[in-house]
Amino acid sequence: MSENLRNDVDPIETQDWLASLDSLIREEGLERAQFIIEQVISQARAGGVALPTGVTTDYVNTIPVSEQPAYPGDHKIERRIRSAVRWNAIAAVLRSQKKDLDLGVIFQLSNLRQLCMKCVLTTFSKHQPKKMVCI
């Protein structure tokens, strides 16, 4: 932010502009004030003034609940998978805390792919690796 925006170099002129806006709202109404402000913003942008967009819209779900499709997945299977993954992580941590066990446990998994790979390696591998390397 420039120094001019933080420190008003001409507070009297600023007050005149704000008083004009108040008068416009009072005399002409909100719609006219909005139109004038939009025109001023358009002119300022055309003149090269950098203005923040400030565009935000509320999210509105346009699909009524009655028209929404059914959930494509299977809640029961997905819950069992999440539970198995959680139990596998707990078992790995408990195994790693045993003495004389040379097993590297990945405590921080950066994404789901790494988690799935860890589950596959520990579940389906005939020979447990001495160390796990996370790629």
From TrEMBL:
Keywords: Oxidoreductase, Pyruvate. SUPFAM superfamilies: Thiamin diphosphate-binding fold (THDP-binding). Its EC number is 1.2.4.1. It is an enzyme of class 1 (oxidoreductase). Gene3D superfamilies: 3.40.50.970. The keyword Oxidoreductase applies. GO terms for molecular function: pyruvate dehydrogenase (acetyl-transferring) activity. This is Pyruvate dehydrogenase E1 component. It comes from Mannheimia haemolytica (Pasteurella haemolytica).
